[in-house]
Amino acid sequence: MRIRLLLRRLSNEHVDQQSQGQQDIPSHHKPPYLHSQEIKHTLELARKMAVSDAPILILGESGTGKELLAQSIHNASPRKSGPFVAVNFAAMTENLLESELFGYEEGSFTGARKGGSAGLFEQAHKGTIFLDEVGDAPLPFQVKLLRVLQEKQVRRIGGSRIIPIDVRVITATNRDLKKLIAKNIFRQDLYYRLNVLPIKMPSLKDRKADILLLAEKFYDVHCRRQENAIPSDMYFRLIASHFFSYDWPGNIRELQNVIEYLVTISPSHPPSPDMLSEELHSDTINVHGNGCHDIHSLILTTIAKCNEQETSIGRRSLAAALALPESVVRKSLTCLQQEGFIQVTKGRKGLLISKPQKALFGDDLASLDACSELTT
Ligand SMILES: Nc1ncnc2c1ncn2[C@@H]1O[C@H](COP(=O)(O)OP(=O)(O)OP(=O)(O)O)[C@@H](O)[C@H]1O
């Protein structure tokens, strides 16, 4: 029953998207990874948030593209002609954070530069400051950060001059800030100051529809100067099913690494499954876990496998092989077909995995900076 409800919700979402016609994004401007409902939803939200000046808090696992999203929101905002300044809190001690963010005057500490230095807040004036891994900010520094955000002015270390700053603040974290608050390692007042417009970057396992598309983009980037490179859809033909069934805990960063590895060890032949690491070999999909996403993944994986082995599979045999009710398989196939993932042929070929619709996205490799297309 739960599966049915989830599938119905998914197909309703699809109908909504179709009826709205997605007219706000001309098809040739679609980012290369605009396939999954999850990322479409995130980008729609991001587009709306870009026009506001309120603080944004980007949540999501490591490697999901939070920094890219922050940069893209800036690019789509009225501040786009101003600077975008990024700082990673995880890598810095309290003292370093203070001097880097607020700046310092000459002679204010040993090693201070002659003439002093403007801090990152000053450098981001009229633009956006991106505070990455904000959950790692040391507690004493959080008080100072809160004051700057409230007063919209900074004073350099060792200085007396008050410097007004006009910046949009975007923060990101892969940690659960509420848990950190409960443990008294993150300030609640700072949390409410930052969490005005929250947005979540989906994990790659929740946007499996985008995996092959991203993989092909990364492959194209690696191979663009290689003369004997084979087309990207051919390249992944033997391993596509493993990509669908793996959970990608390192998200897009891990996918990037895997493609780089494959291209290095097998530059001009489609890599075989045995070239993948043990982890990627895992075929375990939890059919009863997250509902429709798992069913879609399971179905896609099974069709991809049959296609690899050149055995034909149809709706009935799929339902029997997966021990799923035929009605569930039918709904999932309809949805996957409407989304362009599969083709349902009448003849002996049965169900086929579609090639990613590259034409939709153009072949501009610069569009790998996908979110910058938020500006359209
Ligand atoms: N849509 C995309 N297209 C191409 N590459 C992407 C995309 N999204 C993310 N990446 C790449 O994935 C990697 C991780 O992205 P990013 O650093 O933005 O993630 P993050 O969530 O900020 O990670 P962390 O939490 O570890 O800082 C980067 O190399 C980035 O270029």
TrEMBL record:
<dbReference type="InterPro" id="IPR027417">
    <property type="entry name" value="P-loop_NTPase"/>
</dbReference>
<dbReference type="InterPro" id="IPR002078">
    <property type="entry name" value="Sigma_54_int"/>
</dbReference>
<dbReference type="InterPro" id="IPR025943">
    <property type="entry name" value="Sigma_54_int_dom_ATP-bd_2"/>
</dbReference>
<dbReference type="Pfam" id="PF25601">
    <property type="entry name" value="AAA_lid_14"/>
</dbReference>
<feature type="domain" description="Sigma-54 factor interaction">
    <location>
        <begin position="36"/>
        <end position="264"/>
    </location>
</feature>
<dbReference type="InterPro" id="IPR003593">
    <property type="entry name" value="AAA+_ATPase"/>
</dbReference>
<dbReference type="InterPro" id="IPR025944">
    <property type="entry name" value="Sigma_54_int_dom_CS"/>
</dbReference>
<dbReference type="InterPro" id="IPR036388">
    <property type="entry name" value="WH-like_DNA-bd_sf"/>
</dbReference>
<feature type="region of interest" description="Disordered">
    <location>
        <begin position="14"/>
        <end position="33"/>
    </location>
</feature>
<keyword id="KW-0547">Nucleotide-binding</keyword>
<keyword id="KW-0804">Transcription</keyword>
<keyword id="KW-0238">DNA-binding</keyword>
<keyword id="KW-0067">ATP-binding</keyword>
<dbReference type="InterPro" id="IPR025662">
    <property type="entry name" value="Sigma_54_int_dom_ATP-bd_1"/>
</dbReference>
<keyword id="KW-0805">Transcription regulation</keyword>
<dbReference type="InterPro" id="IPR036390">
    <property type="entry name" value="WH_DNA-bd_sf"/>
</dbReference>
<dbReference type="InterPro" id="IPR058031">
    <property type="entry name" value="AAA_lid_NorR"/>
</dbReference>
<dbReference type="Pfam" id="PF00158">
    <property type="entry name" value="Sigma54_activat"/>
</dbReference>
<protein>
    <submittedName>
        <fullName>Sigma 54-interacting transcriptional regulator</fullName>
    </submittedName>
</protein>
